[in-house]
Amino acid sequence: MGKENLQYYIHSTLANNCIPVLMKIKTAGFINFKKAYITDRQIFMWLLKEELEIFHCQYEFIYEDEKYIYVFIYNSEPLKAVIGELCDHPILLNNGYSSVEPTIDNYIKIFKHRYMDYAIHKVTFPHELGIFLGYPIHDVEGYINNNGENYLLNGYWKVYDKAADAVKIFQNYQCYRNKAVELILSGKGLSEILI
Protein backbone atom coordinates (compact mmCIF):
# COMPACT_ATOMS: atom_id res chain seq x y z
CA MET A 1 0.00 0.00 0.00
CA GLY A 2 1.53 3.29 -1.11
CA LYS A 3 1.44 6.54 0.83
CA GLU A 4 -1.78 7.75 -0.86
CA ASN A 5 -3.59 4.50 -0.16
CA LEU A 6 -2.33 4.45 3.42
CA GLN A 7 -3.54 8.02 3.89
CA TYR A 8 -6.93 7.04 2.47
CA TYR A 9 -7.07 4.10 4.87
CA ILE A 10 -6.29 6.35 7.86
CA HIS A 11 -8.84 8.94 6.71
CA SER A 12 -11.59 6.39 6.18
CA THR A 13 -10.89 4.66 9.51
CA LEU A 14 -10.98 7.97 11.37
CA ALA A 15 -14.11 9.09 9.48
CA ASN A 16 -15.98 5.91 10.35
CA ASN A 17 -14.76 5.47 13.91
CA CYS A 18 -13.49 8.70 15.38
CA ILE A 19 -14.98 11.81 13.76
CA PRO A 20 -16.95 12.89 16.87
CA VAL A 21 -13.63 12.96 18.75
CA LEU A 22 -11.91 14.92 16.00
CA MET A 23 -14.80 17.40 16.01
CA LYS A 24 -14.50 17.84 19.80
CA ILE A 25 -18.01 16.59 20.54
CA LYS A 26 -16.75 13.38 22.14
CA THR A 27 -14.02 12.96 24.74
CA ALA A 28 -12.09 10.07 23.21
CA GLY A 29 -12.12 7.13 20.84
CA PHE A 30 -10.50 3.71 20.88
CA ILE A 31 -9.91 2.37 17.40
CA ASN A 32 -7.93 -0.35 15.75
CA PHE A 33 -6.03 -0.23 12.50
CA LYS A 34 -5.57 -3.41 10.49
CA LYS A 35 -1.90 -4.18 10.07
CA ALA A 36 -2.63 -5.85 6.73
CA TYR A 37 -3.16 -2.34 5.31
CA ILE A 38 -0.01 -0.88 6.87
CA THR A 39 2.91 -1.75 4.64
CA ASP A 40 5.17 0.95 6.05
CA ARG A 41 4.81 1.45 9.79
CA GLN A 42 6.90 4.62 9.90
CA ILE A 43 4.80 6.32 7.22
CA PHE A 44 1.62 5.13 8.94
CA MET A 45 2.69 6.67 12.25
CA TRP A 46 3.73 9.90 10.58
CA LEU A 47 0.47 10.21 8.62
CA LEU A 48 -1.67 9.44 11.67
CA LYS A 49 0.23 11.97 13.79
CA GLU A 50 -0.08 14.58 11.04
CA GLU A 51 -3.84 14.02 10.70
CA LEU A 52 -4.50 14.15 14.43
CA GLU A 53 -2.46 17.34 14.80
CA ILE A 54 -4.81 19.07 12.34
CA PHE A 55 -7.63 18.38 14.79
CA HIS A 56 -5.49 19.10 17.89
CA CYS A 57 -6.08 15.59 19.23
CA GLN A 58 -3.65 13.54 21.27
CA TYR A 59 -3.15 9.81 20.94
CA GLU A 60 -1.52 6.85 22.58
CA PHE A 61 -0.71 3.45 21.11
CA ILE A 62 -2.27 1.02 23.57
CA TYR A 63 -1.65 -2.44 22.23
CA GLU A 64 -0.58 -4.32 19.14
CA ASP A 65 -1.17 -7.92 18.15
CA GLU A 66 -0.53 -9.82 14.93
CA LYS A 67 -3.56 -8.24 13.20
CA TYR A 68 -4.23 -4.82 14.73
CA ILE A 69 -2.73 -1.68 16.21
CA TYR A 70 -5.02 -0.26 18.93
CA VAL A 71 -4.97 3.50 19.39
CA PHE A 72 -6.60 5.70 22.03
CA ILE A 73 -7.35 9.15 20.57
CA TYR A 74 -8.47 11.90 22.90
CA ASN A 75 -9.08 15.56 23.61
CA SER A 76 -7.03 16.58 26.66
CA GLU A 77 -9.32 19.09 28.36
CA PRO A 78 -12.57 17.09 28.18
CA LEU A 79 -10.75 13.91 29.23
CA LYS A 80 -9.11 15.75 32.12
CA ALA A 81 -12.57 16.98 33.18
CA VAL A 82 -14.06 13.46 33.04
CA ILE A 83 -11.19 12.03 35.05
CA GLY A 84 -11.41 14.85 37.59
CA GLU A 85 -15.15 14.39 38.01
CA LEU A 86 -15.10 10.59 38.30
CA CYS A 87 -11.70 9.88 39.90
CA ASP A 88 -13.44 8.74 43.12
CA HIS A 89 -15.83 6.41 41.31
CA PRO A 90 -15.56 2.73 42.35
CA ILE A 91 -15.09 1.58 38.73
CA LEU A 92 -11.81 3.48 38.70
CA LEU A 93 -10.74 3.06 42.32
CA ASN A 94 -11.37 -0.70 42.31
CA ASN A 95 -9.22 -1.14 39.21
CA GLY A 96 -6.04 0.56 40.36
CA TYR A 97 -6.69 4.18 39.39
CA SER A 98 -5.64 6.66 42.05
CA SER A 99 -7.79 9.60 43.03
CA VAL A 100 -4.64 11.17 44.49
CA GLU A 101 -2.95 11.62 41.11
CA PRO A 102 -5.77 11.63 38.55
CA THR A 103 -3.72 12.74 35.54
CA ILE A 104 -4.32 11.71 31.94
CA ASP A 105 -0.82 10.22 31.68
CA ASN A 106 -1.26 8.10 34.82
CA TYR A 107 -4.71 6.91 33.80
CA ILE A 108 -3.65 6.03 30.26
CA LYS A 109 -0.66 4.13 31.64
CA ILE A 110 -2.93 2.10 33.94
CA PHE A 111 -5.48 1.52 31.17
CA LYS A 112 -2.73 0.40 28.79
CA HIS A 113 -1.50 -2.15 31.33
CA ARG A 114 -5.04 -3.39 32.03
CA TYR A 115 -5.84 -3.66 28.32
CA MET A 116 -2.66 -5.65 27.72
CA ASP A 117 -3.65 -8.01 30.55
CA TYR A 118 -7.05 -8.41 28.93
CA ALA A 119 -5.61 -9.04 25.46
CA ILE A 120 -2.79 -11.37 26.51
CA HIS A 121 -4.16 -13.17 29.58
CA LYS A 122 -7.89 -12.99 28.74
CA VAL A 123 -8.77 -11.37 32.06
CA THR A 124 -11.81 -9.12 32.43
CA PHE A 125 -12.14 -6.34 29.89
CA PRO A 126 -11.22 -2.92 31.35
CA HIS A 127 -14.73 -1.43 31.31
CA GLU A 128 -13.44 1.88 32.61
CA LEU A 129 -12.73 2.57 28.96
CA GLY A 130 -16.38 3.63 28.70
CA ILE A 131 -15.70 6.41 31.21
CA PHE A 132 -12.70 7.63 29.20
CA LEU A 133 -14.74 7.53 25.99
CA GLY A 134 -17.24 9.88 27.60
CA TYR A 135 -20.14 7.45 27.90
CA PRO A 136 -22.65 8.39 30.61
CA ILE A 137 -21.62 6.77 33.89
CA HIS A 138 -25.06 5.16 34.33
CA ASP A 139 -24.56 3.36 31.01
CA VAL A 140 -21.06 2.18 31.95
CA GLU A 141 -22.45 0.87 35.25
CA GLY A 142 -25.45 -0.66 33.45
CA TYR A 143 -23.19 -2.47 31.01
CA ILE A 144 -21.06 -3.92 33.81
CA ASN A 145 -24.03 -4.87 36.00
CA ASN A 146 -25.89 -6.52 33.11
CA ASN A 147 -22.88 -8.16 31.40
CA GLY A 148 -23.68 -6.20 28.25
CA GLU A 149 -27.27 -7.51 28.12
CA ASN A 150 -30.71 -5.99 28.85
CA TYR A 151 -29.92 -2.62 27.27
CA LEU A 152 -32.56 -0.19 26.05
CA LEU A 153 -30.67 0.88 22.95
CA ASN A 154 -27.53 -0.20 21.12
CA GLY A 155 -25.78 2.48 19.11
CA TYR A 156 -22.42 4.11 19.66
CA TRP A 157 -22.60 2.42 23.05
CA LYS A 158 -25.15 0.29 24.91
CA VAL A 159 -27.69 2.49 26.66
CA TYR A 160 -29.26 1.53 29.98
CA ASP A 161 -30.91 4.81 30.98
CA LYS A 162 -32.03 8.07 29.35
CA ALA A 163 -32.43 6.52 25.90
CA ALA A 164 -33.99 9.68 24.42
CA ASP A 165 -30.86 11.67 25.32
CA ALA A 166 -28.65 8.98 23.79
CA VAL A 167 -30.68 8.98 20.55
CA LYS A 168 -29.98 12.72 20.11
CA ILE A 169 -26.26 12.18 20.73
CA PHE A 170 -26.16 9.23 18.31
CA GLN A 171 -27.91 11.31 15.62
CA ASN A 172 -25.35 14.10 16.07
CA TYR A 173 -22.46 11.63 15.85
CA GLN A 174 -23.99 10.01 12.76
CA CYS A 175 -24.43 13.37 11.05
CA TYR A 176 -20.72 14.11 11.42
CA ARG A 177 -19.82 10.59 10.39
CA ASN A 178 -21.91 10.88 7.22
CA LYS A 179 -20.26 14.21 6.33
CA ALA A 180 -16.79 12.79 6.95
CA VAL A 181 -17.40 9.65 4.88
CA GLU A 182 -18.84 11.77 2.07
CA LEU A 183 -15.69 13.90 2.06
CA ILE A 184 -13.45 10.84 1.91
CA LEU A 185 -15.46 9.23 -0.89
CA SER A 186 -15.29 12.45 -2.90
CA GLY A 187 -11.49 12.40 -2.65
CA LYS A 188 -11.15 15.19 -0.09
CA GLY A 189 -9.30 15.15 3.21
CA LEU A 190 -10.94 15.01 6.61
CA SER A 191 -9.73 18.52 7.38
CA GLU A 192 -12.34 19.80 4.88
CA ILE A 193 -14.98 19.11 7.52
CA LEU A 194 -13.57 22.01 9.52
CA ILE A 195 -14.38 24.50 6.73
UniProtKB/TrEMBL annotation:
InterPro entries: DUF3793
UniProt name for this protein: DUF3793 family protein
